[in-house]
Amino acid sequence: MSPIERPLSRDDAGSPSDFVIADRIVKHFPVRMGVWRRGRVRSVDGVSFRIRRGEVMGLVGESGCGKSTLARVLLRLLPPDRGTVTIAGRDLSLLHGEELRRFRPTMQLIFQNPYAALDPRMRIGTSLEAPLAQHGIGTHRERRRRVADMLGEVGLDASFVDRLPRQCSGGELQRIVIARALLLKPRFLVCDEPTSALDASLRAQIIDLLVGLRNRFDLTLLLISHDLRVVRYASDRVAVMYLGRIVEVGARDAVFDDPQHPYTRALIAASLLGENGLAAGDDIRGEPPSPLHPPRGCCFHPRCAIARPRCVNEAPELAGGPGDHRAACFFPGTPAPR
Q: What's 141's DSSP letter?
């Protein structure tokens, strides 16, 4: 049975503490390949995982591996081709029309680029008030008071309601985007590369802000980032994505201190410069395969230093390790040859 077809196991299927459950999510995009041929980009290719209530789940992987597409499927901004997403006990595939509209405040997205997330011609107060007005929440005066209060929660004063986006710094704009996401009192917040547009001096401030808001507002967070230092600092658990699939998942310290998948080892070695006993030999060969033509068997085998014949012909499933630490590898924990 391929990873696309494999349902959640009893351990995967969730418990009362699980707030978000993704089960066998598939999202492919049709593309033209010349005049007569068509293909499909396998952006998300059979992903199952769970996020517990109140935790921060980090999602890491190279650009183009499907992280942002997965985030949009989780929020029902894109419909999955197959699979289900359950948030707060509600199967999103069963929600339509007005019922889906009423549920949307429960889940919100913080965009990667705060400059593109705000209308440059609209004052900040009007931009922040818009989602409240769209959902019929409060009078104009009540909405403006709520906007001012939320700006205070993210470390900005009420004077920002009269500013235009061009009158704000990148760090201030990111705080404003976070405030807008929180105005509808969500319970699940997806942060898609929330610090990638910021310089290093501001990244720690924004991550500290998000962690503080998680505790203050009882949020469940999915933190998507290519910066492993950010993920290690802020996350409770970590999932590693490669070519549309989850190849390793587990508690933060387990994944970073004892990575089981060779791709995870290589990512950490590249990011953390050989910390935690990872050698310089834990590198990645070549370029990622095209999601139009993913390799058969293990999706990582063309770039893997420990690949064997079995990896070429069979696709490994996420297999259990200590606790809930799992890796999609036939030879977990095997170091790369020196």
A: H
| Cα distance between residue 312 and residue 301, in whole Å | 6
Q: Between the CA of residue 72 and those of 66, 75, 171, 195, what are the distances in Å?
A: 10, 5, 24, 18
Q: What is the mean pLDDT of residues 143-150?
A: 95
Closest to 58 (Cα-Cα) out of 246, 262, 234: 234
> pLDDT of 159-209, one tens digit each?
999 999 999 998 999 999 999 999 999 999 999 998 887 888 788 899 999
Alpha-carbon span 44 to 78, nearest angstrom: 12
The CA-based angle 124-154-240, given to 5 degrees, is 105
pTM over 0.85: yes
Q: How many CA atoms lie within 13 A of 77 on its CB side?
A: 13
* DSSP secondary structure letters along 181-206: HHTT--SEEEEESTTTTS-HHHHHHH
Give the residues across from 91 on adjacent strands: 86
Coil, strand, or helix at residue 218? coil
Q: What is the C-alpha separation between 159 and 187, in angstroms, rounded?
A: 28
Tens-place pLDDT, residues 74-128? 999 999 999 999 999 999 999 999 999 999 999 999 988 888 889 999 999 999 9
Single out the residue of 300, 274, 277 nearest to residue 287, CA to CA. Answer: 300
pLDDT at 249: 96
Q: If you write DSSP's letter for every residue of 60-119 in order, what string do you get?
A: E--TTSSHHHHHHHHTTSS--SEEEEEETTEEGGG--HHHHHHHGGGEEEE-S-HHHHS-
- CA–CA dist 170, 249 (Å, integer): 32
